[in-house]
Amino acid sequence: MTVASPPAPTNRDDPAAWILERAVSPRRRLVNTLATSWMLGSLLLALVPVGVIAMYVASRGAGVMSLSFLTKNLPIVTQFAGGGIAPAIVGTLVITGVAALMAIPLGVLAAIYLNEYGRQNRIAKTIRFMADVMTGVPSIVMGLFVATIWVSAGLHYGYSGFAGSLALAALMLPIVIRSCEEMLKLVPDDLRQASDALGARRWRTVMSVALPTALPGIVSGAMLAVARAAGETAPLLFTIGIATKVNPNVFHGTNTTLSQEIWFNAQTPFPAATDRAWGAALTLIVIVFVFTVIARLVASRFASVKR
Amino acid sequence: MTSPAPSPDIGASEVIPSTAGGKYLDRTFRAIAVVAGLLVLAILALIAYSTTSKAWPAFTHQGLSFLTSQSWDPNQDHFGALDFIYGTVLTAVIALAIAVPASLGIALFITELAPKGFRSAVTYVVDLLAAIPSVVYGFWALAVLTSPAANFYGHIADTLGRVPVLSSFFGGPAFGASFMTAGVILAVMIIPIITSLSREALTTVSQDDKNGALAMGATRWEMLRVAVFPRVRSGLIGAAMLGLGRAMGETIAVALVIGSSHQITSHVFRQGDTMASIIVHNFPEATGLHSAALIGLGVVLFAITIVVNMVARVVANQTSAMSGVGQ
Predict the structure, then answer these.
(1) Axis crossing angle, helix A26-64 with helix B179-202, rounded to the nearest 10
(2) Nearest partner of A121 among B41, B9, B310, judged by Cα
(3) Is A49 on the interface with B (CB under 8 A)?
(4) I need a surface site. Which of A113, A208, A302, B265 has the fewest CB within 10 A?
């Protein structure tokens, strides 16, 4: 007489799956399956746009990509083929670079105040909260802000790359502050106390213990902020003007960026212009992607150092 | 024998005598750091002040009808922004309706379903969505999405146009560049932030609580409903509101695919404009009162997003405060 033993649970590590295989009514099982498919479906919904857009931009952009496209000046009239996007590449790099030079040191200093001095006092809490809120200020408002105080009114300095840098720096600042503070928070207090015990002053503890320990994380956060700023368009349209020649001087003369060239060329019906926009889009995505990957690599190195 | 607990506020600097120069350096460093921190408050105050003062001529010229009138005609000095406020709200609502369920699903996938090694990969790919610049989203949508979208919307409009209530939302005529397309693109753009904040909230629930529910015989979904969702409700609401703030402020992608038309309509397949899109299209050429009015739109947008973000942060922080995480 053989007794059929009940099928052994296939997965004892996953309690939910184990329960499901035992005694669950079909209705409950159906609801659970629907919920699981919702999660999987949502993931697909997010993956499809990244894949589709990246592939499309890569294929259209590769069609116009060439050495002369990357190194020549922009044509005066956008509807004709020819010329390159060198001024936009240079503009993107120098304007974002100058913005980073302003926002990163200030952001790191502010984060040092929040985590090393202020901690939970009222000023620090207020700054922390407002920095969070500031990350939500629309980039176009930053553009209007710089336009009103710097470009066409207020100080009347006119269009320049630096005006664009100011707007981008204002966008980057809260991101740098918050990510840097999170990284400083991860530094164990033991290290600070050890430094204090050796007689170091607070600023020396910060500069030679806390900051170096958190450095990879801070670099990673800063690079992500730079990547976000490099792709910005709205704050630049009101601040840097229009240019067709390479202008590495951010303080003098109008400028242009890849994002701005995509914006201008995308809205014309001319194939030469849209081709140029696809080339600029590919270049911009590559630049942003490089920054993002560097940030991830630095961050993963940090993760391995921590353990 | 108790060891004295070191207070974070008493460094060795107060104990060990040293030169006056060191003390001076320490105070200077602290002062610089404080100033850098206060810069955030200063910039926000300066944004509010400078934009409001530049917009003041338009506000005094138009009065309260700046917010309540539909007539926007720069040539006649009429500046009623209601069309654009409506467009901003409608596109943001469409975006949220798509992005919130999707983001929550992804966040749950990451926290509940994904194998451990797979989690960071999924998180990374979702973050890549945020790395694609806004102008690239807009350009792609304009060049690739709008014409098939017009066909697709046309079919929906034909089908739902006969259904009594739905016809006033989905009825024809349908345009490729429309509120709907703008909302869809916005949804893709705000999925990363809603996902990451939802994920943060979801991870505050302890595994013990979840195991408890599972031990009672709950399916995974029942466990989520009983043990997880009640704990993280405010965190999820905060995440959705932050997404709302982003959606309302997003400019370039919307400006490319919303079709630029002044109207208030419940039909989501029609063309429209948002506050941000009208500013970005018109500000570079605007002068005088027109320019002031556009800056005024910026002030309204700034005020709305600041309020939404503040409420969102307060609500979201409740989750972390309750579970004692994030302090």
Answers:
(1) 120
(2) B9
(3) yes
(4) A208
- Tell me the residue length of chain A: 307
Q: How close is the nearest chain B Cα to the Cα of A47, in Å?
A: 7
CB contact under 8 A, A140 and B103: no
* Whether B21 contacts chain A with CB within 8 A: no
Assess whether pLDDT exceeds 80 at residue A294: yes
**Could you tell me which chain A residue has the CA closest to the CA of B101?**
A42
What CATH number should be reported for the domain whose range is B61-323? 1.10.3720.10
| Each residue's pLDDT tens digit, B268-301 | 888 899 999 999 999 988 888 999 999 999 999 9
Distance from CA of B113 to the nearest CA of A (A): 8
Cα four-point dihedral sign A239, A242, A247, A251? negative
Contact assignment for A147 to B283 by CB distance below 8 Å: yes
Domain ranges of chain B: 61-323
Question: Which candidate, A283, A285, A248, A289, places its Cα nearest to that of A85?
Answer: A283
Is there a contact between B109 and A106 if contact means CB atoms under 8 Å apart? no
Q: Kindly state the tokens that stand for A277.
A: 């926009």
- Domain segments of chain A as ranges: 86-260
Minimal CA–CA distance to A42: which of B207, B104, B202? Answer: B104
Rounded to two decimals, the pTM is: 0.88
**DSSP secondary-structure letter at A202?**
H
How far is CA B307 from each of CA A166, B39, B47, B274, rounded to the nearest angstrom?
Answer: 24, 20, 15, 18
Domain A86-260: top CATH class: mainly alpha
Q: State the Cα–Cα distance between residues B276 and A137, nearest whole angstrom.
A: 12
Q: Which residues of chain A lie closer than 8 angstroms to B326, CB-CB?
A: none
Read off the pLDDT band of B323 (50, 70, 90): low
